Amino acid sequence: MASRSSFLTILVCTALLAVLFGAADAQGLRVGFYKKTCPKAETIVRETVAGFVAKDATVAAPLLRLHFHDCFVRGCDGSVLLNSTKGRLAEKDAMPNLSLDGFYVIDAAKAAVEVACPGVVSCADIVALAARDGVELINGPSWRVKTGRRDGRVSSASEAVANLPSSFGEIAELKANFARKGLSAKDLAVLSGSHTIGNAHCNAFSKRLYNFTGKGDRDPSLAPAYARKLRSQCPRGDETSIVEMDPGRAVSFDTSYYARVGNGKGLFHSDAALLRDKVTRDLVYQYTGSASKFFRDFGVAMGKMGSIGVLTGARGEIRRHCALVNA
Questions:
Q1: Quick check: 327 and 94 in contact, CB under 8 A?
Q2: Which positions does UniProt annotate for Ca(2+) 2 binding (predicted)?
Q3: Does residue 67 have an active-site annotation?
């Protein structure tokens, strides 16, 4: 019995230490971190992102998604950018990440920053800045991005599978996943609003159309007319076609996503799940009627997410190339 008690004590202490170290690292971030060491860093990143968005506004969504997928695995350390190596499959090659895009924008921004300030600005910070800039450039909200993150040296596909929220997740599972990252049910509701932009592959939601409970049935929470439309876009077995997550508004960062969720037209089961909890359900309806509240809360939630598990000070490194750890 004493042995079991000691073991539980060790577990609790380990968890507390992880929280304390994470909080200490997050305190190492600040707005304007590169003001003296690379004063044009944020301008260079923004100009690079603006150049790509001007040519193709759909790039804003992949940049936002990169930041989300980076932060939920090992914290916001740029590990999602690393290539796989012999004997280790990296995050970007995990099943949930195979549809990630926008790496070329991060690489271009990093190359431009390296010309101005070699070895100073982390890839993790560039991902955070590019996500904010992409959203703002398509008339979405802006928020102050704290910088000072350093880049991690490890990237694991299995950790991506274990840590990323599932598009098929139920509300309890989603809330627990967010809670493990220090995020609340409110953060879940507001960050889900990022589904107002971008596209999704059919395999991310086709189970809702053809085999929801394993009996060849449709997800009953999905509006019938919308389900019929999705079936026409994603025939049974189609895993490669893509559809807009917010039809007709895939490059408009607004509150139409919440209106669709409220009407049974959220694309993912995880979208529909927001209606099964009082906190998240109430926020769905609040954001439907108030873009200003959504924009304000989105910026706050992005700031919280951007502080998850960051490496600061002497931890980690400043990669020379975002896809490779330094030699």
A1: no
A2: 196, 246, 254
A3: no
What distance in Å separates the CA atoms of residue 199 and residue 244, rounded to the nearest whole number?
Answer: 4
- Compute the C-alpha angle 67/68/74, nearest 5°: 90
User: Any idea what DSSP says for residue 144?
Assistant: P
Catalytic residue among 67, 69, 201, 321: 69
C-beta of residue 128 within 8 angstroms of C-beta of residue 67: yes
Q: Where in 82-203 does DSSP place strands (E)?
A: 199-201
The reply to whether 165 sits in an annotated binding site is yes
One domain, residues 144 and 181: no
Q: Is 155 annotated as a binding residue?
A: no
> How is residue 198 annotated by DSSP?
-
Question: Does one domain contain both 180 and 95?
Answer: no
Quick one: CA torsion of 151, 156, 158, 162, rounded to 10 degrees?
Answer: -10
Q: Are 144 and 257 within one domain? A: no
Q: What angle do CA 145, 65, 100 make, to 5 degrees?
A: 140
Position 316 scores a pLDDT of 97
Q: Which of these, 264, 294, 280, 287, lies nearest to 272 by C-alpha position?
A: 264
Q: What span, in angstroms and rounded, lies between the C-alpha atoms of 182 and 146?
A: 17
Per the annotation, does 312 bind a ligand?
no
Residue with tokens 């508004």: 249
Looking at residue 310, its amino acid is: V
If asked whether residues 202 and 287 sit together in one domain, one would say yes
pLDDT (0 to 100) of residue 25: 57
pLDDT score at 315: 97
Residues of the chain with pLDDT under 50: 1-22, 24
192 is in an annotated binding site: no
Using DSSP, state whether 88 is helix, strand or coil: strand
Q: Is 96 annotated as a binding residue?
A: no
Backbone phi and psi for residue 201, each to the nearest 5 degrees, phi listed first: -75, 150
pTM for this predicted structure: 0.91
Q: In this structure, is residue 238 part of a structural domain? A: yes
Its domain, for residue 77, covers: 40-163
10 located within any domain: no
Is 196 annotated to bind a ligand? Reply is yes
Based on the domain organization, do 71 and 94 belong to the same domain? yes
Predicted local confidence at residue 221, as pLDDT: 93
